[in-house]
TrEMBL record:
Molecular function (Gene Ontology), one example: ribosome binding
Organism field: Geodermatophilus africanus
Localization per record: Cytoplasm
Protein name: Ribosome maturation factor RimM
Gene expressing this chain: rimM
All residue ranges annotated as the Ribosome maturation factor RimM PRC barrel domain in the record: 108-174
Length: 177
């Protein structure tokens, strides 16, 4: 999984700007992509949400411990950097590289798929994908509430992006949680 979904289907979220760092306009970035070196390379142009804050062009990047710091063209003060706080950074879906493994999916490909049991009974729709040590599908249930489904082949044996569904074969007790 390489990027988080966004409300529109033409872009995916690759990061969110956090607090300013220092006094020269650098910003911290909450990375939401598997390939930050590619996505945040100097010269990269990123769409923004809210749209009026961008597009932003990466002037430089560096890692400070585990935190990605970005320099953005035209942002040269702490005050200017503060104005970008909580801005989501997006790239067009068309710019995402093809995945080599046919069993790998981008988050945006999974969100919106119908989740159903092996017998065809509908469970709900995939509302999000969480990456918390293990990958989890967040399924918004038909009868209300959410179900967290470990995204492993033993429990989700079928993913049919073109057909618009995933098959969930839950172990005993999973649906009762």
């Amino acid at each position: 999984m390489s990027a988080e979904p966004h409300e529109t289907t033409d872009t995916v979220v690759v990061g969110r700007i956090g607090r300013p760092h220092g006094v020269r306009g650098e910003v911290t970035v909450e990375v939401r992509t598997d390939d930050p070196d590619l996505r945040f390379a100097p010269g990269a142009v990123l769409r923004t949400d809210p749209a009026e804050r961008g597009p932003l062009t990466v002037a430089g990047r560096r890692w400070h411990r585990e935190v990605l710091l970005l320099a953005v063209e035209g942002v040269e003060s702490r005050e200017a950097a503060e104005e970008l706080r909580n801005t989501e950074l997006h790239v067009p879906v068309a710019e995402l590289p093809a995945l080599e493994d046919p069993d790998d999916y981008y988050d945006h490909q999974l969100v919106g798929l119908t989740a159903r049991l092996p017998d065809g009974t509908g469970l709900g729709a995939v509302a999000a994908v969480r990456h918390e040590g293990a990958d989890l599908l967040v399924v918004r249930r038909v009868e209300g509430g959410e179900l967290l489904v470990p995204f492993v082949t033993a429990i989700v044996p079928t993913v049919d992006v073109a057909g618009g569904f995933v098959v969930v074969d839950p172990p005993e007790g999973l649906l009762d949680l």
